[in-house]
Amino acid sequence: MSLDTAIFAGGCFWCMVQPFDTYPGIKSVISGYTGGHVPNPTYEEVCSGKTGHTEAVKITFDPDVISYDDLVTIYWHQTDPTDAMGQFQDRGDNYRPVIFVNSPQQREIAEKSKATLQASGQFGNDKIVTQIEDAKPFYPAEDYHQDFYKKNPERYALQEAGGREQFKQQHWNNKD
């Protein structure tokens, strides 16, 4: 079995684990930080906005069971791809939407998917602003951030109530 990884940023990483965690072929979903210039940042450092990192999830998956293309589709259905300044109630660069690609094949799939979404008219005349960037070092977040939706279901529900779930219902009809 040959595994691959995918890294997606879509606002608070707490809200990005559960949607991927439930699919066959997903081996792990790790919350963490990527895209910055400080090695091994802490949550507090990332939240300060001074490290350049984005909260993200690193997904290890079996491409024989679930494709990268499928993962990109699941990703779109968790985010507002028209909001470059964060996601829902989470504002700032550390919450910006990004697909971090680790190969030319991933870039091709992500770019094609983004173009298809833009051409679909799903968001009217709004531009799809989610960035597609080369993967950078990924640093796992502190243990208390891992599997947050399982460990802290009430707090997770509050975070989801900040607009993400309503947006998904309105724009994606819970297609994931």
Give a quick set of tags describing it:
22% strand; globular; 34% helix; 176 residues; two-stranded antiparallel ribbon; 8 strands; 7 helices; 6-stranded mixed beta sheet; alpha+beta
Kindly state the percentage of residues in helix. Answer: 25-40%
Low-confidence stretches: none
* Tally of alpha and pi helices: 7
Secondary structure category: alpha+beta
Mean pLDDT across residues:
92
Strand neighbour order, sheet with most strands: 7-6-1-3-2-8
Strand content: 15-25%
Order of helices and strands: EHEHEHEEEHEEHHH
Shape: globular
- How many strands in all? 8
Main beta sheet:
6 strands, mixed
The value of Rg in angstroms is 15 Å
Distance between the termini: 26 Å
Brief rundown of the structure:
It contains seven helices and eight strands.
Folded structure, characterized:
By secondary structure, this protein is α+β, with helices and mostly antiparallel strands. The protein has helices at residues 14-21, 43-47, 68-76, 104-120, 148-151, 153-160, 164-172, and strands at 4-9, 26-34, 54-61, 86-87, 90-91, 98-101, 131-134, 138-140. Helix 4 links the parallel strand 6 and strand 7 (131-134). Helix 3 packs across helix 4. The radius of gyration is 15 Å and the shape is globular.
Summarize the helices and strands and which ones pair or pack.
Blueprint: E1 4-9, H1 14-21, E2 26-34, H2 43-47, E3 54-61, H3 68-76, E4 86-87, E5 90-91, E6 98-101, H4 104-120, E7 131-134, E8 138-140, H5 148-151, H6 153-160, H7 164-172
Helix pairs in contact: 3-4
